[in-house]
Design a protein that fits this description.
Bound molecules: adenosine-5'-diphosphate, magnesium ion
CATH class of the largest domain: Alpha Beta
Strand order of the largest sheet: 5-4-6-3-1-13
Number of strands: 13
CATH architecture of the largest domain: 2-Layer Sandwich
Number of domains: 2
Oligomer: single chain
Shape: globular
Largest sheet: 6 strands, mixed
Amino acid sequence: MNLTLINNKFNEKFGATGEMFTSPGRINLIGEHTDYNGGFVFPGAIDKGMVAEIKLNGTDKVRAYSVDLNDYAEFGLNEEDAPSQSWARYIFGVCREIQKRGGKIAGFDTAFSGDVPLGAGMSSSAALESTFANALNELFSLGIDRFELARIGQSTEHNYCGVKCGIMDQFASVFGKAGHLMRLDCRSMEFEYFPFDPEQHGYKLVLLDSVVKHELVGSPYNDRRASCERVAAVLGREFLRGATMEDLEAVREKISEEDYKRARYVIGEEQRVLDVCEALKRDDYETVGKRMYETHWGMSRDYEVSCEELDFLATVAEECGVAGSRIMGGGFGGCTINLVRTELYDNFIATAKAKFAAKYGHEPKVYSVVISDGARRL
Ligand code: ADP
Ligand code: MG
């Protein structure tokens, strides 16, 4: 990240020097479509994020400059002052959500820039929200706890950006810790850190972005959710979380084949997250990788949220001897996340690029990531 560029732009725009804050994007190693089933997700913060220089300006106005978009916005802190630019609404939303929680804030100047690729599934928006939530909390000594900072980001998306997201992205961006992933229980909101340091054990983590996003008719997301709720109801549970494969087999006759397969994926995914956490306690990265493949093919064949391009990337990974590969995110496009032995890395990337380009006419984008710290002052 080019801090000097931000400093120069800030100085140019505001003729001063501010304080520096940063927050990261995130990956999710395993645990997909588990959040709304009351299950686990297993994210970590990455070495790509947002950096903002901020200085209080003694007025009741925010003056914000986006270095990457070369765009400027100025807005007040009342509900009717919402800026028109969508990027500025993230900052405005964070200010509003802090105020709704009783936080007293005032105007500030800021210039910011980020290196989380937009819309690639690494949550550039959470990085942006967490940067400002954390910075304002510190600059105004608000004493907001870290979980509430994550909720402020989530509410910003809900109330100011029209995105009904869960808490995982903001949670990971705030709580991230280098060398660790976080298993978040989406039912109790409790979480636990697990050591995850692939570089130390001869592996790299890399995302391959298919750069496709399939537009789908109907609502496959709501559809999957409804299946899960139906099976949970037949099982007499609030969530599929906690149900076993035996429980599912026992009601197989009472549910549709489609619902059965979807529930089988979710119940399997629950166990895979737990298996991966256990494996990491033994530094057993090969088992981690095997579970990633199982998730991929479960998402593809049982949950039916994959697509041709993502299946192709996972298959190339298997052929190249990559330890683990799977769809990251909801599916139907986006990235695969890959755990690769260091000595296989160059060949894997070259092969995946060449084969994908030969078939689909463009190369996947490659993002190598390292698990890093969460929201902080620089
Ligand atoms: P993602 O999956 O990366 O979070 P979103 O669509 O949720 O994608 O958020 C992307 C939006 O966040 C952008 O359209 C922009 O408004 C804002 N954003 C992200 N990164 C930056 C940046 N570096 N500079 C300005 N705005 C950004
Ligand atoms: Mg987002």
